[in-house]
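Need residues for this backbone.
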């Protein structure tokens, strides 16, 4: 009798550099990751009774081309963050609330989404993706809550997953769908990053960045004496939406100034905040996609990050000069995406007043762009809403999204430091 073949040893591979920072930073002593699940959205389909079986089959295809959603992760004491390939067939949880009318269904879905924002991903036993279908009586409609743990998924990847799910729901041929959307593995991305940053390349990028910051990492803080640790994290949300002529005017102004809609919105916000927030230099955390090697294109992961930069715009700069400064800073950041995030982390975390801790212990302002979140099922695009953010990680966080029809800016701010009328004044600067 032939002896049974031995089960091959588990092969653990290094994760891409950007993802490794997220895993390293967020790992708790108990093996869990207290990450904020910012990649959680709600999609409402009024009057649509979704076929859950068909949705699960489409979800399985979308996961198959985005294997980071079913890998197992760990932080090895010698080799750092790693992953092991694994397979998993996703499941759609069905919830039928007592309130079967449409307002009751939507309210139940919102409660589920709000709770998901506070869950912790457990490295030892946890799923990175959760999909819940909330439905009422026949013909009422369905609401989907889709959460991907932020540790392995940024906003760009979440939007990509929605596109994959929409396409898989339309396509009945599993092989054809997979062939059209085949992507590189995380190991290939990690190897490409290592090659690009080999030798002097890493240090040259870091040196170029340090030359932009002769005074070190700037403190982007409110003019308040309250220590960061003395502030409660209790947050309040505020938002604004530009539609119609206000949106078209914003787009025309961005074109006239040769900047993107996001750059103009960022400049408007910083210009409005300046009397209350910024110091002598104009400094801000500039976002970048983090996909600085071709192999990373289309690969699901948490690659997006921000780079603190100081730009040339004195305190008395007008909006036009501020726009030019923001444009130059964002474009410079895009050309230097390979700056290792551990260098950014160490420089920010070791700044004055941080006690050598990570940037989240730092009083600062966060501004980020968000892609359009679009999920199409049965030819219908879901109505998008976001969960409630009860905590404010920064003094104020702002997310800007241009859908092509409207400009949305949502924020969460620390109630202990900011009052709603002031935040509304800042947001009004977008109009």
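Answer:
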């Amino acid at each position: 009798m032939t002896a049974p073949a031995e089960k091959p040893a588990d092969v653990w591979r290094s994760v891409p550099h950007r993802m490794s920072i997220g895993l390293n930073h967020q790992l708790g002593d108990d093996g869990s990751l207290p990450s904020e699940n910012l990649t959680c959205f709600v999609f409402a389909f009024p009057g649509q009774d979704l076929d859950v079986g068909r949705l699960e089959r489409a979800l399985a295809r979308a996961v198959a081309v985005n294997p980071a959603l079913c890998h197992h992760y760990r932080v090895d004491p010698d080799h750092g963050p790693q992953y092991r390939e694994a397979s998993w067939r996703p499941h759609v949880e069905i919830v039928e609330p007592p309130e079967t009318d449409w307002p009751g269904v939507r309210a139940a879905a919102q409660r589920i989404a709000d709770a998901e924002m506070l869950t912790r991903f457990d490295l030892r036993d946890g799923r990175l993706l959760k999909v819940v279908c909330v439905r009422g009586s026949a013909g009422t409609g369905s609401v989907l809550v889709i959460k991907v743990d932020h540790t392995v998924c940024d906003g760009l990847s979440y939007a990509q997953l929605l596109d994959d799910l929409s396409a898989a729901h339309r396509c009945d041929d599993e092989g054809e769908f997979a062939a059209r959307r085949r992507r590189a593995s995380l190991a290939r991305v990690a190897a490409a990053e290592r090659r690009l940053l080999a030798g002097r390349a890493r240090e040259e990028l870091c040196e170029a960045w340090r030359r932009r910051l002769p005074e070190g990492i700037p403190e982007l803080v409110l003019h308040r004496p309250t220590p960061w640790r003395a502030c409660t994290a209790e947050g309040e949300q505020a938002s604004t939406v530009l539609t119609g002529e206000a949106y078209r005017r914003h787009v025309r102004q961005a074109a006239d100034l040769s900047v993107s809609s996001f750059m103009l919105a960022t400049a408007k916000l910083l210009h409005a905040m300046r009397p209350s927030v910024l110091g002598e230099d104009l400094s801000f955390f500039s976002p970048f996609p983090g996909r600085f090697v071709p192999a990373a294109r289309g690969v699901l992961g948490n690659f997006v990050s921000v780079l603190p930069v100081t730009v040339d715009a004195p305190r008395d700069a007008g909006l036009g000069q501020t726009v030019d400064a923001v444009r130059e800073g964002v474009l410079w950041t895009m050309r230097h995406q390979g700056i290792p995030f551990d260098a950014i982390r160490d420089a920010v975390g070791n700044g004055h007043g941080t006690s050598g801790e990570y940037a989240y212990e730092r009083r600062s302002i966060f501004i980020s762009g968000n892609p359009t979140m679009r999920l199409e099922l049965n030819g219908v695009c879901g109505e998008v809403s976001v969960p409630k953010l009860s905590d404010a990680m920064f003094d104020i966080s702002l997310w800007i999204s241009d859908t092509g029809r409207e400009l949305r800016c949502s924020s969460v701010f620390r109630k202990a430091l900011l009052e709603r009328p002031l935040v509304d004044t800042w947001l009004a600067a977008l109009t």
